[in-house]
Write a structure and sequence with these properties.
The protein has 14 helices and 14 strands. With 482 residues, the protein is of the alpha/beta class. The protein has 2 domains: 344 residues, Alpha/Beta hydrolase fold, catalytic domain (Rossmann fold, 3-Layer(aba) Sandwich), CATH 3.40.50; 124 residues, no CATH class. The strands form 3 sheets. Strands 1, 2, 3, 4, 7, 8, 9, 10, 13 and 14 form a 10-stranded mixed sheet that branches. A two-stranded antiparallel sheet has the order 5-6. Strands 11-12 form a two-stranded antiparallel ribbon. The two termini are 41 Å apart. The N terminus is likely disordered.
């Protein structure tokens, strides 16, 4: 974060006062099967103004796509997470008309990298707007002090909500069927926006949540919070099976095997954790043996960890004998550390694998294909903030699940699509399911939430097979939700 802060300070010294600018409009076409998809791309910024003074407090960069020749089209707003991430991952990974070419399993190809047409683009079903929240991409606050207004749970939702209101107004889309798609912290934002905007007259037909985290208690390995341990276990098991450190019955699918792990996690394992030091020696031994078998770790390690396996230690320990680590975003991928005796990996190999291709592709695409010229650095990941303001939830566990429940209560026509990857250790699929079980939704709307799972990681779409399945699943959802 120190490097990003220096960039911010340099820009403040040299950057002029924020002003509005005309967007750049370009025209494109591509083949989707036997059909030709013609579309318009609009690239630019929208101002976030102080409604009392009229001063521009920040600018939000966006890239919007509109399919030509059809009226009454739906409109989907898209963003990623972090907090502090630009919208590049969903944009150039799955949803937009172009995508970064990776290896078929999602691995990194050799440079130079290639941006290709994406015949699986969601533009077939809905017009698209990709939003870079303030401090990401080319979006900038007027000053660092003003930036702090936007760099928090509440301010982020309010500023993105204001962008959506302004976009609907300027591009006359108030009567379009509306959708959101968010990934990772973007799902936190999407749930919050659903509750925030329904009170301002903006209702969504549907929300797509990719790699979901709404209730942060499910993912914080803090002392006294045992909840993450059973919720992460099925993903540990999937990872161990993938790398040959655990086995599954030949006649069972991965999903069937994970059902067995889930039952243990929320039954015998959860009960053992709840007992703490009162757990008998005999019961502890039984749980230790099962936990070791499912996780792929040794019984000795599990016992020394007091039956509580933290994510970073798992990523380091699983393949320690091979002197390799596994990824956090996608545990299928392996990394190489400088020292093999440390307790945590030096880096996340699944992040380092995707960052160079996506960074190069975005910077080239914006300038050469979309005609948007600027010398600003495009902030792919990390954002410009030094500290994220969690508000009153900062001392506990942030939760936007209640906002999603409230949005359902006020808009019972809304539908939600949830996509999770079995090898995602950032937002594990079982933690997502647990959160959905505890939203407190009225029985009348529970069937309007559909869950889909994929044999890849956090960004399941980097795997070409999962990309095709995700497109098919979302297309069906959009048809129902419209």
């Amino acid at each position: 974060m120190e490097e990003n802060a220096k960039v911010t300070n340099q820009e403040e010294k040299s950057a002029p006062k924020l002003v509005e600018e005309e967007p750049v409009v370009t025209y494109h076409e591509m083949k989707v099967g036997r059909k030709t998809l013609k579309y318009t791309a609009t690239t630019g910024i929208l101002p976030i103004k102080n409604h009392e003074t009229g001063e521009i407090e920040a600018t939000v960069f966006f890239i919007a796509y509109r399919k030509e020749g059809e009226e009454g089209r739906p409109l989907m707003f898209s963003f990623n997470g972090g907090p502090g991430s630009s919208s590049v991952w969903l944009h150039l990974g799955a949803v937009g008309p172009k995508r970064v070419k990776m290896l078929d399993d999602g691995g990194m190809p050799a440079p130079p990298y290639e941006l290709i047409d994406n015949p699986l683009t969601w533009l077939e079903e809905t017009d698209l707007v990709f939003i870079d929240p303030v401090g990401t991409g080319y979006s900038r606050p007027a000053t660092k002090e003003l930036g702090e207004k936007f760099w928090g749970l509440k301010g982020d939702i309010e500023s993105v909500g204001e962008f959506i209101r302004l976009f609907l107004t300027r591009y006359e889309r108030w009567n379009s069927p509306l959708y959101l798609v968010g990934e990772s912290y973007g799902t936190t934002r999407a749930a919050g926006l659903a509750g925030h905007l329904i009170d301002r007259g903006i209702a969504f037909n549907g929300i797509v949540l990719v790699s979901t985290i709404l209730q942060f208690q499910t993912a914080r390995f803090s002392r006294g919070n045992d909840l993450p341990y059973p919720l992460f276990l099925p993903t540990y098991a999937a990872t161990a099976i993938y790398h040959g450190k655990a086995s599954k019955p030949a006649k069972k699918s991965l999903r069937e095997t994970l059902k067995e792990v889930e039952a243990f996690a929320m039954g015998e394992y959860w009960t053992a954790l709840a007992q703490g030091d009162a757990l008998s020696a005999a019961d502890r031994k039984k749980v230790t043996q099962k936990l070791a078998r499912y996780s792929g770790l040794s019984e000795e390690y599990v016992d020394q960890a007091d039956l509580r396996i933290e994510i970073q230690k798992f990523c380091k320990e699983l393949l320690r004998k091979e002197k390799r680590t596994v990824g956090r975003l996608d545990s299928r991928f392996k990394g190489m550390d400088a020292k093999h005796t440390n307790h945590h990996p030096d880096f996340d190999p699944s992040m380092s694998m995707i960052r160079p291709p996506y960074t190069a592709a975005l910077n080239d695409y914006v300038r050469r294909s979309l005609g948007y010229k600027t010398d600003l650095p495009y902030m792919i990941m990390g954002g410009m903030f030094e500290k994220w303001d969690w508000g009153s939830a900062g001392d506990g566990h942030p939760d936007t699940g209640e906002a999603l429940r409230a949005a359902f209560a006020k808009n019972p026509h809304m539908r939600v699509f949830v996509a999770s990857g079995y090898y995602d250790l950032a937002t594990p699929y079982f933690a997502t399911e647990y959160t959905l079980w505890h939203l407190g939704l009225d029985p009348e709307v529970r069937d309007q939430v559909e869950i889909h799972e994929y044999e890849a990681g956090h960004m399941m779409y980097i795997h070409v097979g999962c990309l095709a399945k995700l497109k098919k699943d979302v297309a069906g959802f959009l048809t129902i939700a419209r």
